[in-house]
Write a structure and sequence with these properties.
Elements (H helix, E strand, L loop, with lengths): L8 E3 L4 H10 L5 E3 L3 H9 L6 E4 L9 E3 L3 E5 L4 H6 L1 H6 L1 H9 L3 H6 L2 H6 L8 H6 L3 E6 L2 E6 L4 E3 L2 E2 L6 E8 L6 E7 L10 E10 L2 E10 L6 E2 L1 H7 L6 H14 L10 H18 L1
Helix pairs in contact: 9-10, 10-11
Amino acid sequence: MRSNITQYELVAPKSLDAILQILADSPDRYTPIAGGTELMVALGAGRLQPKKLISLWNLEELRFIEVAPDAVHIGAAATFTDLRSHPVITSELSLLSQAASWTGSIANQNRGTLGGNIVNASPAADSPPALLAYDAAVTVVSTRGSRTIPYRNFHLSYKKTALAPDELLYSITLSRNLIGYKTYIRKVGTRNAQAISKVAIAAIARTSHGVIEGIRIGAASLRETPARLIATERSLLNQPVTPATIAAARSALLSETLPIDDIRSTAKYRAAVAANLLEEFLHTL
């Protein structure tokens, strides 16, 4: 049954300061929304609990992509279409532009935002594996000021993030210091398009004389949150790419992931496919 629209309150302040003040003052806690793509699914299914909503759509203070010499700063309200069409992101941060191309239909990419994909905190979300592989940082703001958090520490548990009730995700920062890194990203779903991932892996690595000098691996649908595969990375760091190393990395991945059985897949399938994707990436090195 569709939700009753009269049970909801929506406000749309014209400035970031006004939004932050409402979040600070409201004892009932407004829920920020941007593109609303996730919200509309819940509304149509009758699963959206009555609440107060505050719109961030068309707020230019949150919709930007700024390129600095050493980093790219992406506003939380930048859409997936913005990411796909930006020349620096497509050329230097291609894992993110590829992930953006997976996110629903073209209409959804025109509305859906990077910040919304992060804060919605789905363990199957498309952008987090790329952000984890790039070791992104996120900046959050409130009337009390701002703070920057390594993205790998942002997701605390299922659907729970490091955001305080009065805080808003402001931007995402990715380093441009990626010279010499090879990249990899794969999503496995029921269909080739418009599918929620059964498993997704994004990774970057740098080698010298056959030895892995640096590696980062992000994953979706393998834990209760998007996850950096730290133990798997450690098993590979400073190691040559050999069958024995690959076998050890597969074991490390299986030991640090906790996939589940659900309507889309089984835990056994997810674990096997994730290990296969990791091996596929390592063979490219």
